[in-house]
Amino acid sequence: MDGSRVSRSGERAIFWTLPAVAVVWIAAFFLFPGFVPPMSPKASAAEVAAFYRDHLSRVRYSMILFNWFCVALIPILMLLVERMRGMAHRTPVLRYCVIGVAGAAPIAFLTSTVFWLIAAFRPERSPALTQMCNDLAWITFTCGVPFLIALCVFVAVAIAYDDQPRPVFPRWVARFNLVIAIALVPACFAGLTLDGPFAWNGFVSFWVKNVAIAVWIVVMAVVLRQAMDREPVVVGAAA
Amino acid sequence: MSIGASLRTDPKRELWFVWYSTVAFYSLYSVVFFVLTRTQPPGRPWLTPEQTVGWFADRHWGLLVGFALIFVLGGFSATSIALITYSIRRMSVSRAYAYSYLILYAIAAIPGFLFICVAMTVGAMRPERDPTLMHWLYDFGFLSFSGTMGVFLVGSLIWMAAILLDKNGVFPRWFGYLNLCNALTEVVIAPSWIFQRGVLAWNGVIAWWIDVAVFGMYTVVFIYLLRSLIQRDDLGTGPVPALPPGAAPRAHPLAKVLAG
Amino acid sequence: MTAIEDVSTEAGVDVVGHVPGEGDMWFFVVFESLVFTSYFCVYLYYRAQHEHAFLKAQSALNLPLGIVETILLLTSSWAIARCVQEVRAARYRSAQRFVLATVGLGVAFLGCKLAEWVRLIGEGHTFTSSEFMQHFFFLTGMHAIHLLIGFVVLGVILYQLAPQRRSHQTIETCSTYWHTVDLFWVLIFALLYIVR
Amino acid sequence: METSAKKRLLVAWVVVVAITVIYLWIDRSADDRRVLVGSVAVTVAAIGLALVKFRIILREFMDVRHAPRALCVLTDLLVVVIAVALLSAYFVGRAVT
Asked: Is B2 helix (H, G, I), strand (E, B) or coil?
């Protein structure tokens, strides 16, 4: 190996794990009884405790699935990082930015599954405690998007700076990433209100945010697949 | 050069983007913690459960809005990590140093600042919650925030070792030693897991005030030095050249005096 | 003094006007001294506030042991200073013996320190038992961490003493670190054991 | 010159050890039969002697004696700063009670 070329062997194997884990994510999403429709933040402690008592198994199995497979996004993000090597950048610093948030993004979600699973572990616990675990889970899940927002912005900047005749990703992908970043922002304010579109079960904080994440994964997978078919580029000295 | 021009046309524009984001992030961070949420200086660890309810009530909107801003922009903490990783990568040492630094800080963001944001938001969103649970959220927030300094300890030591071994002159060597000083003050925060009052508690004179003073100096210094690295960088792999005369960054006064 | 062939400084060395070790190391000496001074100030302030309680807890300390520890560390400082002299005279084998002596004295100091901690904890004087003991364990603990780093630094000196390397500047820099550990102990000892 | 440097280092060592032993005497004379008694004089003396040792270590062991003036001034300044800081912390603490 001449050192300036990075092997791409096995990248397709990683890429095709995405449809498989996506099936698991979708299944877990619908298995969790608190997502369709999303649980209300206005529910009393007694109602929250009753929810966990009534849907114990579905809460547990769906969250165990998420707990296992949410980090399966990381290898996909690493494929993205590898494509960034081909960008017309002088330094690897934007790749480091993406790596810097690629781990934390799914692990923030992993943390929320831990709180959900703790809430479900002892349904006989005092309702106030169960409600607190439920709040911690929902706030971590809904507001825990800073790494995804930063990821979108970093990808957008990286594409904008990819000045070459045939950029790695098309230009519109940069704008698309900014739109997704903006779509995620309102969810961060879910703590401010317990009802309306901005509450954690509201249209903006729940549906807009989660659909945006799903669309991002799908669109990025498509452009990633196209970029993967192209010839590898000889990387620069500092890359 | 203006910010706009350096972000559009400069060949080092991605470095400048990351550097300006770092400055913006640290400024936002300071405003949120010191002004909006008033969670720095930290609350008193000896509050009773009922007093913590009052503490949350006092800064209700500040906590919710302030930490919402961190939820939006917290991910930009990765910019300083990436830039420091790049600085280590620019040195004549193994990439293992750079990658260790990157991974260490990237994952530490979750306990390091996401937990306090979540705990304080959950505390503020239901003022009627049982006071003992409010007390727990209060402790969870402050202890997770202050008590995860092992990252800074090991991280500073990695950066220090890289700087002292480096032959490319990426940073002045005194900054390597400043990393050691910073690492040693991070040790001092560990007793905040043990003491509920006194100088070593999480708001204590030693564990908070002295540490924040050192950490503040360290942060200002490294942001300044990263800027001067970007200015000097030739984007190669060899020694980082000095700035052309006229634009020379000031050497550390102490180093200059001692050299003369 | 015999001829000095310093391989690492470009400027070369004249005996008068020579910065011991690298100049940047003195930044550490000054900065870390100031950090420790701030810890000492906090200690002295609270000590003056609660003099009686501090005196009572302080009486549990064993002064002769503290003096032995101090002499051990002072002697280790002397040994490493001798090592630097031997290096300048290009007597590397002898220099190596002085480093090993320094390591031995450092280990002896640490042994005394551990024995003292064990005895105090056994008598019920722990990190959390009183304000004085909190400062005592904090300051001696912080110092012990500096000392442990010092062993790494002494290792660097031994490494540098091998033929082919022998950077006088690095050896002087490392010895400066070891002396700094001694400097801090001199103050800590006076403040914890003697001050009334 | 070399033997004199060696001898000088030894003398420095003897002096700092001697000062350490003086502490034993201060300690003995300060207390009222094993009961520790607060004393401003002992406190000031302890800090003063420690700083004398501090400066000897700097000058002799750390070879600041041969260093450029700037470093000599810097280290002396450090000793003064430490002295002022420690004594003021102590006396302010006493005055505030």
From this structure: coil
Q: Which tokens sit at C43?
A: 């200690």
CATH architecture of the domain with range C23-194: Up-down Bundle (1.20)
d(CA B97, CA C71): 39
Take residue D61 and report the two structure tokens written for it. 């062991």
Q: Cβ of B181 and C127 within 8 Å?
A: no
* Number of compact structural domains in chain B: 1
The partner residues of A38 in beta bridges, in order of sequence, read A35
Given a contact cutoff of 8 angstroms between Cβ atoms, the answer to whether B42 and B208 are in contact is yes
Give the C-alpha separation, B4 to B25, whole Å. 18
Write the Ramachandran bin of C90: left for phi over 0, alpha for psi from -120 to 50, otherwise beta: left
- Distance CA(D25)–CA(D7), nearest Å, equals 27
Q: Roughly what angle, to the nearest 10 degrees, separates helices A146-160 and A93-102?
A: 160
User: What residues make up the domain containing B37?
Assistant: 3-242
Residue B258 lies in a domain: no
Rounded CA-CA distance D90/C117 in Å is 26
Handedness of CA B103, B105, B111, B116 (dihedral sign): negative
Q: In the structure, what pLDDT confidence band is assigned to residue C7 with cuts at 50, 70 and 90?
A: very low
| ipTM of this complex prediction, to 2 decimal places | 0.89
CB D49 within 8 A of CB D22: yes
The answer to whether the Cβ–Cβ distance between B72 and A157 falls below 8 Å is no
pTM of this structure: 0.90
Q: Letter for the amino acid at A127? A: P
The structural domains of chain A, with segments of one domain joined by +, span 11-228
Rounded CA-CA distance A186/A208 in Å is 9
CA distance A148 to B74: 10
Q: B121: which 2 tokens?
A: 């938001």
Which DSSP string corresponds to C134-183? HHHHHHHHHHHHHHHHHHHHHHHHHHHHSTTT--HHHHHHHHHHHHHHHH
B204 located within any domain: yes
C-alpha closest to that of B57 among B133, B124, B119, B136: B124
Contact status, residue A149 vs residue A181, Cβ threshold 8 Å? yes
The span from the CA of B220 to the CA of C175, in Å, is 30
A-B C-beta contacts closer than 8 Å? 162
Inform me whether the pLDDT recorded for D80 exceeds 70: yes
Q: Which of 55-84 (C) contact D at CB < 8 A?
A: 55-56, 58-59, 63-64, 67, 70-71, 74-75, 77-78, 80-82, 84
Tokens describing residue B108:
């530490």
pLDDT mean values, one per 10 residues, chain B (260 residues): 76 93 94 93 94 96 96 95 96 96 91 94 96 96 89 92 95 96 92 93 93 94 96 89 62 48
| CA–CA distances in Å: residue C55 to residues A221, C48, D34 | 70, 10, 11
Taking a C-beta distance cutoff of 8 angstroms, is the pair B164, B157 a contact?
A: no
CA angle B61, B62, B64 (to 5 degrees): 60
pLDDT in tens, B83-139: 999 999 999 999 999 999 999 999 888 998 999 999 999 999 999 999 999 999 999
Residues in B closer than 8 angstroms to D62, CB to CB, are none
Residues in chain D: 97
Which residues are bridge partners to A35 per DSSP? A38
Neighbouring chains of C at 3+ CB pairs under 8 Å are B, D
Beta-bridged to residue D32, according to DSSP, are D35
Q: How far apart are CA B126 and CA C61, in angstroms?
A: 51
HSE at residue C91, side-chain half, CA atoms within 13 A, is 14
Looking at the complex, does the CB of residue B187 fall below 8 Å from at least one CB of chain C? yes
Q: Which helix (H) or strand (E) holds B224?
A: helix B211-232
Long-range contact set of residues C123-127: C-beta below 8 Å, sequence gap at least 24 = C123/C60, C125/C57, C125/C60, C127/B191, C127/B194
